[in-house]
Amino acid sequence: MELTDLILAPVVLPLIGASLAFCAKAFHKNDKAWKLESFAAAIGLGLPLLLLVYLFQFVNLGQSIQVSIGRWPGNIGILYRFDGIAWLVSLLGFTVGSAAWVYSQGSGPKGPGFTTTFLIQTASMAAAAMTVDLFNLFVCLEVMGLASYILVASSEKPGAYLASFSYLMISATAMVFFLIGLLGFYKLTGSLSYEGISSVLDSLPQKGGTMATASLALIVAAVAIRVAIMPLYGWLPDAHALAPHSISAVLSGVLIKAPLFALTRLLIVMPGGGDVGRLLSYTGAITALAGVIIALSQKDTKQLLAYHSISQIGYVVCAWGAAIAAGITTPAGIALFSASFLHALYHALFKGLLFLTVGTTTDLAGERNVYKLRNAALSLHKAGEKVPITFLCFLTAAFAITAIPPFNGYASKAALSYTLKGSWQGLFLYAASLGTVASFIKLSRIYLPDKKSISPSTGMNMPLGKIKKTAQFSQLFLALMCIISGIAALPMSRLVLRLLGEVESDSLPPYLFSVENYTKTGLVVLGGILLYFLISTKSGKKVLQLIRNRPKMFHGNFVALSLGMAFLFYWIKLSN
Amino acid sequence: MVERILILILSLIGLWGIVYKKNIIKKIYGLTILNSSVVILFILEGSQIGKNAPIMGKGVRDMVDPVPQALMLTAIVIGVCITALSLAIAFRLYRFTGSFDIDEIREKVSHGTD
């Protein structure tokens, strides 16, 4: 087997696993079915991880391996490129995916159907990270979407079906516009590969003019729906909040970032890509702040986490867009890009962990309302958790997302503020981190005993089941990853930098663990505590209620999509 | 030009169905119509350069561009999957709420979760 075939394995192995898992339906005996299913998951999730370790030596040398599927010539065939970006995105996907799969074996959903869909989703994620063909990107996004609509609905709650339906409608419509954009590029250039399109566009008068601009706007807006950048976020909160916990972890951790990094390959070669990057950087900063304000107002624990995903993806998009605008081969650009990836990776770890721990807690306590659920630590203890693993893991993740050293969020947020220094976006992100602290104080209170009814005899804290070993295991795994990647932040950031480009640059301050940085963190925490007291006052609560009860309509998504596309079009047009 | 205007009207009908129809089955119809209009648009654009079907054989000349047709085969398959899945979800929603009206469903669902 040649190396060029080997790089297709992260896509092919999960698909093989998916078909094996589907065969497990043939067994009536549960035990045999489960064995085959686990074997399928090992092939689909474990083996690719091992393979990524092996492939590291090639990407570490800065190699980018290109393969045409079915060995068709490059201008007709579908090209896949395996390089630093693909390696990093796949690593992120398979790590969080494996942890989530293990978690779901204990706490559901499980069964051959679930494993099959889950593996197909993972395969499409890996494919989206590698493809350099516009139509193939369309197929990857559609397959990824189809799998995630099913997985969101698999929690079998009526709300989850509605969320899945809204998600399906808006993203299927957006993908139709993606196709129209694709047709525009194909008509202009006769090519579907990114390089083919951009090289022909460069030779055209005015680089393709209005048609090229419109096509780019359509495609970027359609992908932005999947990433849930601010005006296009409407589908996300319900879908992520009502999905099963393991699926929420994957959706928030991985699936909203894969399209973003897939878009990178297109934007860096396309004329006008830099302008799109700059606009997305601005919207990212606004998303980060607005997302956290809405998160602060939520009363459902998982809704709160879902809005935090929007806010955190805003951080990622902000630095990512600035990187594209600066040019990914310049030292400043590569530093921004690696900071953005570092945060995407670390966010996947801690947000996955948050969804799992909070999910475990609310399931066992039988209550999801932040204002009602109290003393959850006791419920967990009664559910058979003698060492408070879930609580400690929750604390790890909460400290990570609020950027407390030495957890990993501290490092990636330091990288973001270091690379975005001096821009107004940096200030927005700073303000957003105050909100993050305040909302996690609010969320952490579910574990604390209530002042009024401190006696546990009220029956409120009777757990609804036993804690699952698999849940504890995957939570511990992610928590360990959060701590290790936080302590080893400097080597990690150098690794990401080296994989993304060969330009000498630095995305982290040289003295990460220094008194100066600790003071900054201390100030943020103090500000957050202050904000928390502010929102606990009567008028604060009223404001939050107004934000929480803002009207939500089905067609709001569509209005946002069309406005977003039009705005994007004029933005690129006027920037030229 | 007439063909293009017809396709535009078709796609606007689809979009209108998705956004403004209250009945979720009609929304799904809208999505299918929108999808089909793009398929037709691709085929139309591909047929600009020739007349004959792109099947390789002796003496076949003046072929249409085969790439858009190949792409649309894939897009149609995906469209069928999406229609099937959305109908399945619509059925489940009907079983839970006894209604196809999106506002009514939203109301009943949010009462259920609070």
From TrEMBL, chain A:
Keywords: Cell membrane, Membrane, Transmembrane, Transmembrane helix. The keyword Cell inner membrane does not apply. Residues 133-440 form the NADH:quinone oxidoreductase/Mrp antiporter transmembrane domain. The chain crosses the membrane at residues 39-61, 82-103, 123-152, 164-186, 211-235, 247-267, 279-296, 317-338, 344-366, 387-407, 427-448, 476-497, 517-535, 556-572. It comes from the Bacteria. GO terms for cellular component: plasma membrane. It is a multi-pass membrane protein. Its main location: membrane. InterPro entries: CPA3_Na-H_Antiporter_D, ND/Mrp_TM. It is found in: Cell membrane; Membrane. Belongs to the CPA3 antiporters (TC 2.A.63) subunit D family. This is NADH:quinone oxidoreductase/Mrp antiporter transmembrane domain-containing protein.
UniProtKB/TrEMBL annotation, chain B:
It is a multi-pass membrane protein. The chain crosses the membrane at residues 6-21, 28-50, 70-91. Keywords: Cell membrane, Membrane, Transmembrane, Transmembrane helix. InterPro entries: CPA3_antiporter_subunitC, NUOK/Mnh_C1-like. The keyword S-adenosyl-L-methionine does not apply. It is found in: Cell membrane. The keyword Ion transport does not apply. It comes from the Bacteria. GO terms for cellular component: plasma membrane. It holds the Pfam family Oxidored_q2. Its main location: membrane. Belongs to the CPA3 antiporters (TC 2.A.63) subunit C family. This is Na+/H+ antiporter subunit C. It comes from Oceanispirochaeta crateris.
